[in-house]
């Protein structure tokens, strides 16, 4: 299997949010985490699109919980980041860092 | 759980859009997020939920989910397929895309469908406004109307005494008995009197109907208990909005017939009154104000009665109680020596549209019009079915490929049906717009009534529902056959047939032929119907009414609206005006009559005739009459056959005289001269009336009626507060009208002219219904012919296009242009002639049903039955000739290379 394309910005954000949340990562908490850390409000639907894509790439894994009453008797799908996922965000960050290396903003102070 | 969940509709929608594989968890996430904010900010929770549901991300998610590896815990049959809604949405998108790819076809389809649906919408609106709008009352099933049966067996209005008697003697079955009558009045608006329509109603009218005021209040019991003491009025919502600008009107005065009336209430929006369905009543006034509003008319039996059946009493019991009361009244009268039969009938609203006598003819006309527009729609649908069949033939490869790739027959049929439903919906929108335009044109027509009225034909929910239903049915009707046909063709054969387009098309082409034949046949039926109505109209207008129909000005006057106490007050000003007109330049004659002929009715009086017993079962003779000024017979050109006409000397104090019509003289004295004989009025037995002359018969009610016994009285001896001045002269009608109006103004500036018209307009009014029928049915027939001509043209040119190769071969083998044209035209003409043949047979059946609507022409009218089909054949040949000429111009070499 050829190596998957590097994660997009949003994919990185979702991977990192899931990593942050540890055992507690599911639709609503990921949404909250993204809102808290990036200030962006994203719909659950959009988040799921990315979660599903990331799981297909093997960077996330998921499992269903038991149903809870506050959710109208529905289960939660918990996501956790896989080792491959961690490797992928690390590589993405490293690639960025390499690009940033040695750059200064025009005014002379570090950007 | 006490907490309300997320919005139900949104939840349902969510289930439709979310891929089934992730349904549970996403629903759960959104429910959790909703529950968190719901208690504190319910509105923002709802909005947020909706935003989540409407997120376009789910469309992407569905694609993603399809290739998703199922995680542990998902239900095994989770991937059971698409929800109906998404399937529908996908088909819808596809349909719109396909239709947009052939804009020409789509435009023609939508417009012809709109042309078919438009008339349906317009006619249904009228039928709905007049017949079906539903009673404007609370619990209408508990209401009954009461009418008196007349000699003729028809049902007539009653008098106020009956209202009182019902209240006294039927109070146990009726909780309220109300009465109403519609009349014109003059309302002063900015100083000028304007004609309006009011209903004179008993104080409990609105209570009995169960209607609540929009503003203010309705009448109090004391406002309708003493004569002439409470000048108050309730105005309609429409009047309030249009004439008073919706301003705060309560407590202000309206000058009605010259007297101020205080506005106490505004009727609810849409309430148009009881007396005239489909017509907007402007005001309601208390019955006991009649001495001011219609002086001298209180004895006339002209009240409609509506009663509400008491709670808990079955309507049938109330009807039976009315029967019993009717028999009691009849017995009382017979006991007092009367021979007149008295019959009172109660008609529950639930079993009646408008009036026991009118329902039959009105429903028949409504049904006729609905059938006619239904046929037009059918022709339009057949057209589209034909187009779609042709398209389906052209799309056979596309469909075969889709089937070969695994699409089921159901999926193909569904797709094609949705395409036609999209066309149907678009056609419906166009049709609705056309219908509204037609309706506006209809509403602006001059109605044959003595005052201007405003039709109240609303575009309401039922009209929209009807149009939507018609569009849907149309979509299915013209979509189903082509869809089934297209899906049935065997895949392998179609794919093999590539390059030989002629072979496979036979079946579909012949079905199209059948459709065109049907279309032509329907058009023949409609055209014959239109022809019959046209002939009927011509026959009606050709009738000689017995008086001079040359140019004249006719001015309807309303003395009640002028503040006159009685008809006697009219005599002097009319006399003065006629004297002025007699010496006016350009006026050759002027006269006054209380009822202008052809007025669809007449007044009656009761007489004893010495030596002639009254008809069986009656106490007296009942004569229809009119009162006229001297000079009437001269101005109207009605010959005096014996004796003399009225003269100036026949004044109020002179010995009473009368003139009889020939039919009346014939009925009473069987050919002996009536002159010198006497009549005795039952209202004034001391002064016998001497008959001084006999006039020739004229049409009194309607054109072409049987000679009607008619009595003429001198106006000064039988005055009335309403009537019309008729003026003839060398001036043009408008100038004649102005001269007459000036003469009337000079006689009494207050004399209210209710309507100015001309003799021609009056005559046109009398043929209003035949003319409307001829115009409407004619227009619809023309529409049907246009549509089927398009259909025929389509079939023939499609056939030509498919036979290009054949034409090429024929021409290269020596066939001339004429041969090719002949070949194609013969094909088209064959279809047309077959259709016309079937159409004539159908028209013969249909015209039998039309007979009851026709005057002066039989349903088997040979001229119509020959001319209409002939016209269609000619049109058909032209429609076939155009593509034929194109075929004849084909270059054989090009044609052979084609395909």
Number of domains of chain A: 1
Topology, number of strands of chain A: 2
CATH topology of chain A: Arc Repressor Mutant, subunit A
The CATH superfamily of chain A bears the name Winged helix-like DNA-binding domain superfamily/Winged helix DNA-binding domain
Terminal CA distance of chain B reads 71 Å
Q: Would you identify the regions of chain B where 5 or more consecutive residues have pLDDT less than 50?
A: 70-80, 498-508
Counted beta strands of chain B: 22
**Count of separate DSSP helical elements of chain B:** 28
The chain-level mean pLDDT of chain A equals 85
Q: Cα-atom Rg of chain A, whole angstroms?
A: 17 Å
Poorly predicted ranges of chain A (pLDDT <50, ≥5 residues)? none
Percent helix range of chain B: 40-55%
Rg of chain B is 36 Å
Element pattern of chain A in H and E: HHHEEH
Integer average pLDDT of chain B? 84
Task: Describe what this molecule looks like in 3D.
The complex is a heterodimer of chains A (111) and B (899). By secondary structure, chain A is mainly alpha-helical. Chain A is built from four helices and two strands, in the order αααββα. Chain A has helices at 9-21, 27-38, 44-56, 83-100; strands at 60-64, 77-81. Chain A has a two-stranded antiparallel sheet with strand order 1-2. In chain A, helix 1 (9-21) packs across helix 2 (27-38), helix 1 (9-21) crosses helix 3 (44-56) and helix 1 crosses helix 4. The radius of gyration of chain A is 17 Å and the shape is elongated. Chain B starts with 7 loop residues before the first helix and ends with a helix. Chain B is α+β, with helices and mostly antiparallel strands. In chain B, helix 12 (359-394) packs parallel to helix 15 and helix 12 packs antiparallel against helix 18. In chain B, the strands form three sheets. In chain B, strands 1, 2, 3, 4, 5, 6, 7, 8, 9, 10 and 11 form an eleven-stranded mixed β-sheet that branches. In chain B, strands 14-15-20-17-19-18 form a six-stranded mixed barrel. A four-stranded antiparallel β-sheet of chain B has the order 13-21-12-22. Chain B folds into four domains: 8-81, no CATH class; 151-342, no CATH class; 360-541 and 769-897, no CATH class; 553-767, no CATH class. The chains are: A mainly alpha (111), B alpha+beta (899). The A-B interface holds A 26-28, 31, 43-46, 48-49, 52-53, 55-56, 61-64, 67-72, 74-77 and B 1, 5, 18, 22, 24-33, 35, 51-52, 55, 57-58, 60-61, 64-65, 67-69, 71-74.
């Amino acid at each position: 299997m050829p190596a998957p394309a590097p994660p997009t910005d949003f994919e990185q954000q979702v991977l990192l949010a899931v990593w942050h949340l540890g055992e507690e990562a599911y639709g609503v908490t990921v949404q909250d985490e993204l809102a808290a850390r990036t200030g962006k409000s994203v719909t659950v639907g959009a988040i799921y699109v990315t979660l599903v894509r990331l799981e297909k790439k093997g960077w996330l894994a998921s499992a269903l919980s038991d149903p809870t009453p506050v959710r109208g008797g529905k289960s939660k799908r918990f996501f956790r980041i896989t080792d491959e996922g961690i490797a992928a965000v690390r590589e993405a960050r490293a690639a960025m860092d390499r690009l940033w290396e040695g750059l200064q903003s025009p005014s002379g102070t570090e950007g | 759980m006490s907490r309300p969940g997320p919005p139900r509709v949104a939840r349902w929608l969510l289930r439709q859009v979310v891929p089934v594989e992730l349904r549970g968890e996403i629903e759960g996430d959104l429910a959790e997020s909703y529950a968190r904010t719901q208690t504190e900010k319910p509105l923002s929770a709802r909005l947020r939920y909706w935003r989540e549901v409407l997120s376009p991300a789910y469309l992407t998610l569905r694609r993603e989910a399809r290739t998703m590896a199922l995680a542990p815990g998902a239900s095994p049959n989770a991937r059971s397929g698409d929800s109906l809604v998404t399937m529908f949405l996908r088909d819808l998108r596809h349909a719109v895309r396909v239709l947009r790819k052939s804009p020409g076809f789509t435009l023609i389809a939508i417009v012809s469908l709109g042309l078919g649906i438009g008339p349906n919408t317009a006619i249904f609106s009228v039928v709905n406004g007049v017949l079906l709008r539903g009673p404007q009352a609370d619990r209408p099933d508990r209401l009954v109307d009461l009418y008196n049966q007349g000699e003729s067996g028809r049902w007539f209005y009653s008098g106020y005494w009956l209202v009182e008697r019902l209240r006294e003697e039927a109070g146990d079955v009726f909780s309220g008995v109300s009465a109403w009558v519609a009349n014109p009045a003059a309302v002063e608006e900015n100083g000028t009197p304007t004609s309006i329509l009011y209903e004179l109603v008993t104080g409990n009218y609105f209570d009995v109907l169960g209607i609540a005021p929009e503003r203010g209040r309705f009448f109090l019991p004391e406002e309708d208990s003493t004569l002439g003491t409470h000048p108050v009025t309730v105005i309609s919502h429409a009047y309030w909005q249009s004439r008073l600008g919706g301003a705060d009107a309560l407590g202000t005065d309206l000058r009605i017939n010259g007297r101020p009336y205080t506005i106490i209430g505004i009727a609810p929006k849409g309430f148009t009154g009881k007396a005239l369905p489909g017509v907007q009543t402007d005001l309601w006034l208390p019955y006991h104000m009649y001495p001011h509003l219609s002086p001298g008319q209180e004895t006339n039996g002209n009240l409609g009665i509506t009663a509400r059946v008491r709670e808990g009493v079955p309507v049938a019991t109330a009807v039976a109680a009315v029967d019993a009361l009717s028999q009691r009244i009849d017995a009382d009268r017979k006991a007092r020596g009367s021979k007149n039969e008295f019959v009172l009938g109660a008609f529950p609203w639930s079993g009646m549209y408008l009036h026991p006598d009118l329902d039959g003819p009105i429903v028949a006309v409504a049904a006729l019009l609905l059938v006619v527009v239904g046929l037009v729609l059918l022709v339009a649908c057949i057209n589209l079915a034909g187009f779609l069949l042709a398209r389906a033939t052209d799309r056979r490869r596309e469909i075969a490929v889709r089937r070969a790739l695994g699409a089921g027959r159901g999926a193909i049929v569904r797709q094609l049906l949705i395409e036609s439903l999209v066309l149907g919906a678009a056609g419906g929108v166009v049709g609705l717009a056309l219908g509204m335009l037609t309706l506006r044109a209809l509403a602006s027509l001059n109605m044959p009534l003595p005052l201007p009225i405003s039709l109240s034909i609303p575009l309401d929910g039922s009209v929209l529902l009807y149009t939507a239903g018609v569009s849907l049915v149309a979509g299915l009707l013209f979509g189903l056959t082509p869809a089934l046909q297209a899906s049935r063709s065997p895949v392998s054969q179609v794919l093999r047939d590539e390059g030989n387009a002629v072979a496979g098309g036979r079946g579909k082409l012949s079905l199209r032929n059948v459709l065109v034949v049907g279309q032509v046949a329907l058009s023949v039926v409609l055209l014959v119907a239109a022809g019959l109505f046209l002939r009927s109209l011509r026959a009606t207008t050709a009738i000689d009414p017995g008086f001079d129909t040359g140019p004249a000005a006719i001015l309807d006057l309303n003395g009640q609206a002028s503040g006159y106490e009685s008809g006697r007050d009219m005599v002097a000003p009319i006399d003065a005006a006629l004297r002025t007109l007699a010496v006016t330049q350009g006026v050759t004659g002027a006269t006054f009559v209380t009822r202008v002929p052809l007025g669809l009715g007449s007044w009656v009086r009761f007489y004893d005739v010495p030596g002639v017993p009254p008809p069986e079962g009656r106490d007296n003779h009942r004569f229809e009459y009119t009162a006229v000024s001297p000079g009437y017979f001269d101005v109207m050109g009605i010959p005096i056959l014996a004796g003399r006409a009225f003269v100036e000397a026949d004044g109020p104090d002179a010995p009473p005289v009368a003139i009889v019509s020939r039919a009346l003289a014939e009925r009473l004295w069987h050919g002996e001269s009536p002159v010198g004989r006497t009549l005795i009025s039952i209202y004034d037995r001391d002064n016998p009336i001497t008959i001084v002359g006999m006039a020739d018969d004229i049409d009194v009610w309607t054109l072409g009626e049987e000679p009607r016994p008619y009595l003429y009285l001198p106006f000064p001896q039988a005055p009335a507060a309403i009537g019309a001045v008729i003026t003839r002269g060398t001036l043009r009608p408008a100038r004649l009208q102005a001269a007459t109006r000036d003469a009337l103004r000079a006689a009494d500036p207050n004399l209210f002219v209710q309507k100015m018209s001309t003799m021609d307009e009056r005559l046109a009014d009398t043929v209003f219904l035949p003319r409307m029928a001829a115009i409407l049915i004619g227009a619809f027939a023309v529409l049907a012919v246009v549509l089927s001509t398009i259909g025929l043209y389509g079939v023939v040119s499609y056939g030509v296009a498919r036979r290009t190769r054949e034409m090429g071969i024929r021409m290269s083998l020596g066939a001339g242009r004429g041969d090719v044209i002949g070949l194609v035209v013969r094909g088209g003409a064959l279809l047309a002639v077959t259709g016309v043949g079937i159409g004539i047979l159908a028209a013969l059946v249909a015209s039998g049903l039309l007979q009851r609507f026709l005057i002066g022409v039989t349903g088997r009218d040979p001229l119509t039955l020959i001319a209409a089909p002939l016209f269609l054949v000619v049109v058909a040949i032209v429609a076939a000739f155009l593509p034929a000429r194109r075929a004849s111009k084909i270059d054989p070499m090009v044609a052979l290379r084609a395909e």
